[in-house]
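re: that chain from earlier
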Amino acid sequence: MDLFNFGLTEQPSRRRVDRKLLSRRPIAIPADRDIYEERDFLQVLYLERRRSERSSRPLCLVLLEGVGIPEVNAREMAFQQILKILGSSVRETDTVGWYKQKCTVGVLFSDINSADSLVVNTLRTKVSNVITVILGPDLANRIQISVHVFPNSNDLSTNPSDLILYPELPHQSQSRKTARLLKRVIDVVGALVLLCLLAPILVLIALVIKLSSKGPVIFRQARVGRYGKLFSFWKFRTMHVDSDTGTVYKITNDPRITPVGRFLRKTSLDELPQLWNVLRGEMSLVGPRPPLPYELDCYALWHRRRVLEVKPGITGLWQVTGRSRTNFNDMVRLDLRYVQQWSIWLDIKIILQTPKAVFDGEGAY
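^ sequence. v structure.
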């Protein structure tokens, strides 16, 4: 019985492909059309989302939470009935399982024709109707239904990315908890030491900026941090006042940049106020550069991971391997390589390479 065929496409061979992929990992995948356990279901969700990142074909995750049924026995009985009918109702290419064991059931619809509101609302309604028929209206009203679509809006600054569709992120944070705590300690201690050592230079730069051109010493700009959260990004002002109100572009001999600003950019001294962002926990000493909100709107799906998996940083692989002369896709690949290979020793290596990159000034303008 197919209850969920609105806006969907049937691809009978897809399930076999998924099992082949999953068999490369040390997890047990059900051989029949039974319900996936939490670990297996999250693995399927991860792989389907990565597939969608490459193909741009949307997928939809419907979650059913039993938060409104506090009695454990009643909740288990309700979920048993729900799982029984869902397991026999969805397409072979879709996945039913535990998103959170014994608490939240997930139904993953892959390869939907469209992610528009009509399809999404129809899926929600169909699932709700099925639950009402199975449990009755009173108990069904106590099941919370949420729908999560990928890809969703690229505008993460106004619609933060749906982290429910990134189940690997909490696991990564937990598995590297000690290392990330050490990274934070290094960030705080390093930022404080640098601010103290560079205090005379910071004061001198501030005076020169103030005396050489009208306007504030510090330039503040909205940037996108980890998980798509906006924060106020600090730099020494290098442009004439109001130069940033129009179209943002980057050229070698930008007429908007002041003579002092040109020197600050060449030497990367304009970035020093970001040590304050590091102390505030918005940035790290090492990490991908934080994008502007308008840049995020133009990101391809696979670009998003650079703002999801780690905090942005003052320096990184991009800065020590060519900086502004590295094209955007190569920059993202460097950022993702940093994410995959990250360790405290890699951070230290990048920090030690940064002074040479700054003094060379290659690609900075």
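The chain has a mean pLDDT of 80.
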